[in-house]
Specification:
The structure holds three protein chains of three kinds. By secondary structure, chain A is α/β, with parallel strands linked by helices. Chain A is 33% helix and 30% strand. Chain C has one domain. The chains are: A alpha/beta, B mainly alpha, C mainly alpha. Chains in contact: A-C, B-C.
Amino acid sequence: MNAIQITGLYKQFSGKRMKKIDALKGLDLEIAPGEVFGFLGPNGAGKSTTIKLMMGLLRPTAGAAKIMGMDAGQTESRRSVGYLPENPAFYDYLGAEEYIAFVGSQFRMGKSLLARRSEEVLKRLELWDARKRPMRGYSKGMVQRVGLAQALVHDPDVYILDEPMSGLDPIGRALVKDIILDLKRRGKCVFFSTHITDDVEKVCDRVGVIVKGTLVALDRVENILRSGVEGYLIHLKMPETESFSFGGIELFRRTDSVSEYYVPCSAFNGFMGEVNRTGTDVLLVETKRRDLEDFFLALVKSAQGA
Amino acid sequence: MRGTLSSALVCILLYGILIIPFTTYLRNKPFLEKLGYVPSVTALKSVAADHKEMVAASLVMKVLMYFGGLSEKSQESQVVIPPDYKAMSRLLHGAVKLDPYNMDAYYFAQAFLTWDVKQYKIANDLLIYGMKYRTWDWYLPFFAGFNSAFFLKEYEAAARYYQRAGELSGSDLSRLLAGRYMQESGQTELAINYLSVMMNGEKNPALKKNYQLRLTAFREARRIELARERYREVKGAMPATVEQLVSGGFLSPPPMDPYGGEFYLEADGKVSTTSKYAFAGVKNHKK
Amino acid sequence: MASIILITLKGIFRDRVFQGIMVTALAFLLIPVIASLSMRQVTELSLTLSLSMISFILLLLSVFLGGTSLWKDIERRYTSSVLGLPLSRQRYLLGRFGGTALFVMIAAVVLGAAAFAVVLYSSAIYPPERPVIWSTMGLCILFDALKYILLIAVAFFFSTVSTSFFLPVFGTISIFLAGGVTQQVYEYLRSPASKSLSPVVKQIAAGLYYLLPNFGAFDFKVNAIYGLPLHVEGLLLTLAYFVVYVGILLSISAAIFIRREMR
C-alpha cells in the first residue's frame, strides 16, 4: 500500500464573474512509505491546492487522494498524518504547550505519552522556554516551529508539510532539514512542498515539479543530478609559463602554477589520455553540471511557454 | 506631541465655553419635547423585544421625572406651569400596553387623571384594563370605586368595586360601603379616607406632597362642614356664607385653601372652593 | 469534542470577555437606587431592571460571540490547522457552538446570582406586596439563557453560509427582532382585525411564524417580576421546542459546513 495515492486529482475553482479556473488538472502521484518527496513548483502552480485536497480541506472536482489507503474526505484518514499548513496560524491565545496538548488529545494520545512527546518536540524546536506564553506574542519563525512541533508530536507515519522552511532563518532551515532527514532515517513518509530547490536537493528521494496545475517532471533526485552533468573543470599542475592544449582543449584560466581546463563530457577521455601521456599531474577534477535550480527553471520556462 | 496637546487644550476650552449654553438650552426645552413623542406602541413593542417591561418602566419613569421636576419648579418660583397631561396620559397608556402589570403606571394615571384632568372615564377604563391582569391587587378596584363614587356618582358601580377591593385586601374596606359615603353628603369624608390611604402608602415626595396638599384642603372643607352642622343645630337654619361661620365663632381659625382659592357655601349648603382643589393653572386643561 | 469546547471557553475567557461582563455588571449596583424611584413596585422594578440587563448582556454575547466564532477561525486560518487534525467538521462545529453556549450559561449563572443579590436587597428594604418567587426568577433566567443559546445556533447557521461577519451579526440581530414579534403577528392574523389583509400576506406571515424561531415563548419576565404562576406543561413544551429547533439549526449548519471549502 502506498502512503499517499493520488489518482486523476482534478480541482476547479469558480472565480470572479462565473469564470472557472482549473487549479489542478488530473494529477497522478504515488508516494511509498518511507519516502521523502519534494513537491516543487512556482507560486500558484497548485502545490497548496494539492495538499489541501489531500487533507480534506478542499473537495476534489474529480479524482481522489488517499492516505494510507483511506480517502482524504474521511476524517480518519488524517489520523496517521502530521500536517503543517502553509503560513500556519494557531489559536493565538494559547501557549505552544497548550496547543500541542490539544493536538495530542485529538490524536487520542495518553496523558504520560503526550507529556513526554510534547517536551521532546518543544525542546527539539527550541520552543521550550516560550511554551507557556500565548502564541500571539510569537515571531513568525516561532509560529512556524509550533506548526512543525504539532505535526511531529503524535509521531505519525505520514508527514504533509506545506512550505516547511518558509519564515525561518538559516538556523531554522537547517533544523528542519535535520528533522526531515531524521524522519527519513526512521522510515517515515514525508511529502513537502517548496519552491526552493536547494531544500529538495539535500533531503529528498524523489521530486515532482508542478507548473500550472500539471505535473511536468517526476524523478529520483540523483537521476536528475546525474543527467545534468555537462563537463568537468580540470586543474593541472604546470610550472611552465607556456600554454599547452590537450586534445584540442585550450587553457581556460591560469593561476600561479595551476592551469584550468574546461572539458565537456564527450572530450573527457581524449583529454585525459593526452594529460597522462605528457605526465602532467592532475590536482582536481570538478564536475560541472546544471543543478536542480537550473533544471527547475528550464522546466518551468518550457512549461509556461507551452 | 505638542500639536496634539494644544489641540486637546483648545477643544477642552471650547467645551467649557459651550457646555453652559448647551445645558441651559436643554433645560429650557419645551416640555412636550422633553417628554418626548413616543412612537406607536405596536412599533415600540416590536423593537422592545424581550425588554417590554423595561421599556414600560422607563416610560413611567419619564413621566414621573417630568412631573416631579415640574412640581419642584412650581414650588421654587411660584410660577405655575401647567403639566402636559395629555402627553403624560399617552405615555402611561403606552406603558400598560407594553406591560399590563405595571402598577406604577395605573397608580400615577389615577393620581392625575382624576383630580387634575377630570377624565374619570378614561381613568376607570384604564383601571378596568389593569384589573384583568393584576387580579390580586386591591388598589385598582379601590381606585375605581372611589372614582365611581366621588366623581362619577355611580354608587352602584362604586359598591361593586369596593366589594372587590375588600375581598382582595382582606381588610375591612366594607365600611366604605356604608350608606353615608354612597351619597353627596359623604363626599368629603370619602375623599379624606381615600387621600389618607394614598398618602400613607406614598414614598415619592412629589406625589406625597400632592396628596398632602389635597388632604389639607379636604380637611379644611370637612372642618367647614362640621361647623356648618353645628351652626344649623344652634341657629336652626343654614348659614349662607363661610364668613358667617367664622364671625359666629363656629370656625376658628378661618379656613385656608392650600390651592389659593376661597371656600364658599353653595346654595344647598355644600362646601366648595374657588380653586376646585387644584392649582389655578389647571383650569385651562379642563376638558 | 470536549477539548474543542474547552479551547473555545479558554479563548472567550482569555479575550477578557468575562472581565467585560463583570465591569458591565457593576451597573447592578445602581439598580436598587433607580428602583427606589418607583412609587408602588420597587422590588418589581429591580427585578425588571436586573432581568433586562441580563437579557441585554446575553444578547450582546450571543450575537458577537456566536456571529464571529467561526468567521474568526476561518479569517485567521485557524481552521486549516484545526481541521487538518482528525477532527470532523461536525464535531468542530458542535464544539465551537458548545463552548460558546456554555459560556453564555456561565454568564447567565453569574449575572443571575448578582440579580438575586440585588432583588434580595431591594425586597428587604421595600417589602413587595407580593413575595418574590425565587424559583420563578431562576427559571426565567434559565429560559432567557436558553433563548440566547438558540440565538447562537442561528448565528452559527449564518456563519456557515457566509464568509464575512456581516451576515452572521446583522442577520442574527434581525432574526432576534423578528423572532420576538412572530407570536404577536400570528395572534393578530387570527383576530378579526386582520380581515382586510390579503390572503397572500396572511399565508406568508403564517409561514414565517412556523419558520422563524419563536423567542417570545422563552420570555417569562412578567411571571418573574409579578410573581405570576408558571405552567409546567408550557415550560416543558418550550424546552422541547428549544431542543428540536437547535437540533434542526445545527444539523443544517453542519451539512453546509461539511461542504464548505477551506481555501
